[in-house]
Design goal:
By secondary structure, this protein is mainly beta. It has a single domain, classed as Beta Barrel (Maltoporin, Chain A), CATH 2.40.170.20. Helices cover about 5% and strands about 55% of the residues. It has a 22-stranded antiparallel beta barrel. Strands 3-8-9-6-7 form a 5-stranded mixed sheet. The longest helix is centred in the N-terminal third of the chain and has 10 residues. It starts with 8 loop residues before the first helix and ends with a strand.
Length: about 725
């Protein structure tokens, strides 16, 4: 085990502050993507006199909002336990990863911090491209978004494509398992991963400024990262700025260096809002750029890497008239321009993916209405989107010719407080989606098609407060998903998976019926969250191996084992998923200045096709536990997580061995003196160890599991300085 640690947050912060070279400049063999210039007139709104903002209740079924999700209650002399049980008031299972966890983990993607949470893992295709997998579902069934607007990338097309959100730009990441989030669209059929931040501030800091400086270094990949966030304002005007930069080399494994696993990324944002007594309206501009290598034998030989960039414009606002039956009106808007080049050898462009997308959503929340059955609250809304996407190849047939997707939807959420302990929920969504593109018919002849799909979804939920502060949740959902352009119109080589993919323009809607039972207790010495779920898919869309192989064109496909790519067709079969997720903590007793306790977790998902066979790339059973200590200044924990061998595999898939992760962390937080202007500095420094047993780790849900090991033992030094 090689451990190379010299300094912590100072090194990370200095790395960010002193570094001025962009990613493309630091690597001469890359192709820099063109700048995208956006000119938008500034909104003119007369700022109202600021008064304390009342938190309006959000629509049922939405991801937990920052104001309604908090760490477990703790006495004044105890810190919240990072990664612990959090209180939420949702009808589906929710996981919240805090800013503190994002900094201590230090991974280049938001998925890195989530992968040890019950029910969540990642695709781990490359350190720079790690897409979340929730309950065994990924790609087109998991929606990733920032502040309620989709990330507008091409990550769902291929596992080697990154999600353009850096952990340093997020205040927290919320994961909503299951299809209970009907306000967001078809891609949310399996769950939501929502990163929230202050890029569009909805408040003016009480002291006039809120700032944070963060950074760290890691031993396994010589990683160094740093960033800052600052929100300031007065007189009803709030401004925000943030930026980050990170760089890591090829990481170490128990058997040596894993080639082509480096990551370089940077980005930042500027935003501002007009904040009044009845709401706010704001706008932000951000840019994200990343260069990362693709591991694997063939990828290393070709020096495969991806150079990507995205420019995004976001706006959101809220108006609380509280008149004429309207409690609040809210809107979200996003526009983005995304592109990446897939480079080989000395900078030759093998393919180029682009995505230009616009999305908007408006919601009207009505005032609470008293009925004979109880108090009724809820909201109605509309959502619309337009996307132009392509995946052009310069070496053969393109994976995806330019396609266009248009969608419009309406949704409604209603919630009834039937008794003091009982709440009921009903939600519905109707959507119309048209997907236009060029593909192949059953005879592999070129066609142009524009099928229209009309998904209809609904959900019913129940929340009941039991004795001892235990909340029971029971919900049922029927959710439908429109096929994506790549599933309908793909017709080219897919280097990432070693396949030649052929879409199916005859695909129908994918439908899922889910039932979930859960129990949660987030207060007291014993805290837990437990869920059991069952989902049946009607027309589960998947990639079916045909037995033929291809080179770079459709015409080359034949029953010839010497050809490079395995031919796959997009098909549909019925499938069943079920599983369990458990997480618990117990404060055993007082010791020194705080409390020590024990924690445990367990999760599994079982997925089969109804006509026989396992669904590919399923996560294994995982069982873990550990010890923790926390007081007003110190937090320490050690955790052991064992992943069992995965031998329930699909056809042409290999078994995956077991592994055991030993992780540990200790941090110290101290508060400085409050200045004359009311600003108080809070500093946290810490050290974290991952995979301290230096075990061989292979992810059964990854396409690369047979040829790529995940990182070996690592130590990370990290820190933050906050001004509030």
């Amino acid at each position: 085990m090689s451990v190379r640690v010299s300094v912590g947050v100072a090194a990370g912060a200095a790395y960010f502050l002193l570094s001025h070279q962009v990613v493309a400049q630091s690597a001469p063999d890359t192709v820099e993507l063109p700048e995208i210039v956006v000119t938008t007139p500034s909104p003119v709104v007369k700022p109202a006199k600021k008064k304390p903002k009342a938190q309006a209740p959000g629509p049922a079924g939405q991801p937990a909002a920052a104001a309604s999700v908090s760490q477990q209650p703790s006495t004044p002399d105890l810190q919240p336990l990072p990664g612990g049980i959090v209180a939420h008031d949702a009808f589906v299972s929710v996981t919240v990863t805090t800013e503190r966890e994002l900094v201590s983990n230090g991974g280049p993607t938001i998925t890195d911090t989530l992968m040890t949470k019950p029910g969540i893992t990642g695709s781990t295709f490359a350190p720079g491209a790690n897409r979340p997998i929730i309950r065994g579902l990924d790609s087109y069934r998991i929606r990733t978004q920032e502040n309620g607007i989709g990330t507008h990338d091409v990550a769902a097309i291929s596992e080697d494509h990154a999600i353009p959100i850096d952990p340093f730009s997020a205040r927290q990441v919320e994961v909503v398992r299951g299809p209970g989030t009907l306000r967001y669209g078809s891609q949310a059929i399996g769950g939501i991963v929502n990163a929230t931040n202050d890029r569009i501030p909805d408040f003016v800091p009480p002291s006039g400024i809120k700032a944070e400086l963060m950074g760290g270094i890691s031993s396994v990949d010589d990683g160094r990262d740093g960033g800052f966030q600052v929100t300031t304002g007065s007189g009803g005007v709030a401004l925000h700025a943030d930026a980050f930069k990170r760089r890591s080399d090829d990481y170490d494994t128990p058997h040596g260096v894993q080639p082509n696993t480096y990551v370089e990324s940077e980005g930042g944002a500027l935003g501002g809002s007009l904040v009044g007594s009845d709401g706010f309206i704001g706008l932000s501009y951000s840019r994200f750029a990343s260069l990362y290598g693709i591991p694997g034998e063939e990828a290393v030989e070709e020096n495969s890497r991806i150079d990507m960039a995205q420019t995004k414009l976001l706006s959101k606002g809220e108006w609380r008239p509280q008149a004429n039956g309207v409690d609040a009106v809210r809107y979200w808007f996003g526009w983005s321009d995304y592109a990446h080049n897939e480079l080989v050898d000395e900078g030759e462009i093998g393919s180029r993916f682009t995505n230009r997308e616009i999305e908007g959503r408006v919601e009207l929340q009505h005032v609470p209405v008293m009925t004979q059955f109880g108090e009724l609250t809820g909201a109605i809304g509309v959502q619309a989107g337009h996307r132009r996407m392509s995946g052009l190849s310069f070496e053969g047939d393109s994976l995806l010719d330019p396609s266009r997707t248009r969608s419009v939807a309406g949704f409604v959420f209603e919630e009834l407080q039937a008794t003091r302990n009982l709440r009921l929920q009903a939600a519905a969504r109707y959507e119309s989606t048209e997907v236009e593109g060029d593909g192949l018919d059953d005879a592999l002849a070129p066609i142009t098609a524009s099928p229209t799909f009309k998904p209809v979804s609904g959900s019913l939920g129940l929340l009941y407060v039991l004795p001892f502060d235990v909340t029971a949740r029971l919900n049922a959902q029927h959710v439908e998903r429109a096929p994506e352009a790549a599933e309908l119109f793909s017709k080219g080589a897919h280097e990432a998976t070693g396949t030649f993919e052929i879409g199916n323009p005859n695909l129908s809607k994918e439908k899922a019926d889910t039932f979930e039972l859960g129990f949660q207790r987030s207060t007291g010495a014993l805290r837990f969250d437990a869920s059991a779920y069952y989902t049946h898919f009607d027309g589960f869309i998947y990639r079916q191996l045909t037995g033929d192989r291809c080179e770079d064109t459709v015409a080359s496909c034949a029953n010839d084992d010497t050809l490079e790519f395995a031919q796959v067709l997009f098909e549909q079969r019925d499938a069943t998923f079920y599983g369990v997720e458990l997480q618990g903590e117990l404060d055993v007793g007082r010791v020194w200045k705080g409390v020590w306790g024990v924690e445990a977790q367990y999760d599994f998902v079982h997925a089969t096709f109804d006509d026989g066979g396992y669904v590919p790339r399923m996560p294994p059973h995982r069982l873990g536990g550990g010890l923790y200590y926390r007081d007003a200044e110190w937090v320490a924990r050690t955790n052991l997580l064992h992943a069992f061998a995965q031998d329930q595999v699909a056809e042409n898939e290999t078994d995956t061995g077991s592994y055991t992760l030993l992780n540990a962390e200790v941090s110290y937080t101290f508060t400085g003196e409050t200045g004359l202007d009311g600003i108080t500095p809070v500093t946290t420094i810490g050290v974290r160890g991952d995979n301290l047993l230096d075990d061989d780790v292979r992810n059964s849900a990854s396409f690369k599991k047979d040829e790529v090991l995940l990182p070996g033992a690592s130590v990370r030094l990290f820190g933050t300085v906050k001004l509030n």
